[in-house]
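dude i think i finally got it to work??
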Amino acid sequence: MSFPDRPDQGNRANLEVRSLFGWHERMAGPDRMRMRKNGRSERVMTTVTDQLKRPLKDLRVSITDRCNLRCQYCLPGELLGPDFAFSPRKELLSYEEMNTVVAAFVELGVQKVRITEGEPLLRRDVGDLVRLLRKTGPDLDLAMTTNGLMLDDNLLALRQAGLDRLNISLD
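look at this
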């Protein structure tokens, strides 16, 4: 998977991509292509499965590592400290890039996408991502996990963009 407009991330990006494709090869198996009687190969739709052969139907999409809280289990201040450096914004995937990845997983049978990690509502115009994902998968179950602190400003826009469900963490 190549995103030509992304800045060079060195070996880390290559490891991530190789890891994804290696995982796909192990999980999906060799049945992705088959030969027709006329000698041409055709693509066979496969479902990604885990090691127990259960189909992958849910996908979590982490859109930021930033959060407006310091929960003990997530961003403990004593471990990360006040000078902790979050990922630079230019290293985060754009909404279009996230949509491309989700679209690939939808083709492999994913039915539910949960937008999560950090506090998703800290990411600017998150409704645009929801709208893109809804267009990509009209039948997708789109959900989001949030701490709820920014819902006053975002709830209506998220619903209008096509978000189905919201999980509010109250810890």
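The chain is about 35% helix and 15% strand.
im so relieved honestly
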